[in-house]
């Protein structure tokens, strides 16, 4: 990808980072994935000479900060308080630098419905959807959109609680889930033109990845377990399309109040339009994860990637 100019590292001495807590695990539904991601990040930082150590969950992090053991935090705690603004507000109040977007971007993008509302207000394209409040009428929402649709929680990740509904016969599991789920759901137009994701690293939108799951649906199994999911990077053969999807992802990331690093998921409509879907503010860093795949396309290896993310916590590098 010769059109992507990767800047040189701005910090070359690992001691500049001080003691880095790699925050992982936690209590969300994405705990196991976070433990995997966190171990990979920890290994990469240690290999680079960073004084890094693992911390499992927010209470343990608070104790480490109180004990004076933490200079900055590499947040790789997926879901829950790791991505909903709670952690970010805590660390900001305590004056502890951390990776990833701040309070606003984290809180907003954890809520898929309100992220999409912001994009709509900003004139950015996103898939049609209907909000389903807790205890709301899922069937009516699905019928409003028309089949096929996805039904998903507004504030979960890793495809937790997502249902693919192609007709009335597929509704029962989603209705059963909705009857016990305490939060909001959304019914969302199913798009068939291709599934893509674009990683954001500072001001760079990295090459897109097109995701081609063997069973046609990128569910939890396809993300973290299956070995037959295809990841095509760059995801688009046409240079113009590739430039457009990267620009849209960066616009969507910024419009949602995000900075630092993250990942923007995009779908393509059958008519060729790209539509924003959601933002991940602490993306996976497992062997199946997509941000490292995109970074590798522009010559950024995994250790280099982790270093560059951590660099953003140093004020003169982050520009804040």
TrEMBL record:
It holds the Pfam family Dala_Dala_lig_C. Keywords: ATP-binding, Cell shape, Cell wall biogenesis/degradation, Cytoplasm, Ligase, Nucleotide-binding, Peptidoglycan synthesis. It catalyses: 2 D-alanine + ATP = D-alanyl-D-alanine + ADP + phosphate + H(+). Its main location: cytoplasm. Its EC number is 6.3.2.4. Pathway: Cell wall biogenesis; peptidoglycan biosynthesis. Gene3D superfamilies: 3.40.50.20, ATP-grasp fold, A domain, ATP-grasp fold, B domain. It is found in: Cytoplasm. Residues 116-311 form the ATP-grasp domain. Its cofactor is Mg(2+); Mn(2+). It comes from the Bacteria. InterPro entries: ATP-grasp, ATP_grasp_subdomain_1, D-Ala_lig_Van_CS, D_ala_D_ala, Dala_Dala_lig_C, Dala_Dala_lig_N, PreATP-grasp_dom_sf. One of its GO terms (molecular function) is ligase activity. Cell wall formation. NCBIfam families: D_ala_D_alaTIGR, PRK01372.1. Belongs to the D-alanine--D-alanine ligase family. This is D-alanine--D-alanine ligase.
């Amino acid at each position: 990808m010769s059109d992507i100019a990767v800047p040189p590292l701005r910090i070359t001495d690992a001691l500049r980072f001080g003691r880095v807590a790699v925050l992982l695990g936690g209590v969300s539904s994405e705990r196991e994935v976070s433990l995997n991601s966190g171990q990979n990040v920890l290994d990469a930082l240690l290999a680079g000479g960073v004084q890094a150590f693992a911390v499992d969950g927010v209470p343990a992090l608070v104790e480490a900060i109180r004990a004076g053991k933490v200079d900055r935090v590499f947040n790789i705690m997926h879901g829950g308080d790791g991505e909903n603004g709670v952690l970010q507000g805590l660390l900001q109040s305590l004056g502890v630098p951390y990776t990833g977007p701040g309070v606003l971007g984290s809180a907003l993008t954890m809520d898929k419905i309100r992220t999409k509302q912001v994009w709509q207000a900003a004139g950015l394209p996103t898939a049609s959807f209907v909000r389903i409040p807790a205890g709301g009428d899922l069937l009516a929402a699905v019928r409003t959109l028309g089949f096929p649709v996805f039904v998903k929680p507004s504030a979960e990740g890793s495809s937790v609680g997502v249902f693919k509904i192609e007709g009335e016969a597929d509704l029962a599991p989603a209705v059963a889930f909705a009857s016990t789920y305490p939060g909001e759901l959304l019914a969302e137009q199913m798009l068939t033109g291709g599934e893509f994701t674009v990683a954001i690293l500072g001001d760079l939108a990295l090459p897109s990845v097109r995701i081609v799951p063997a069973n046609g649906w990128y569910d939890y199994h396809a993300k973290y377990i299956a070995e037959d999911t295809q990841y095509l990077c760059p995801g688009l053969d046409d240079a113009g399309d590739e430039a457009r999807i990267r620009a849209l992802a960066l616009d969507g990331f910024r419009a949602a109040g995000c900075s630092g690093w993250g990942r923007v998921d995009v779908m393509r409509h059958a008519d060729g339009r790209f539509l924003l879907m959601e933002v991940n503010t602490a993306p996976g860093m497992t062997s199946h994860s997509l941000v490292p795949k995109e970074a590798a396309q522009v010559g950024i290896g995994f250790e280099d990637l982790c270093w560059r993310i951590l660099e953003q916590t140093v004020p003169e590098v982050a520009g804040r």
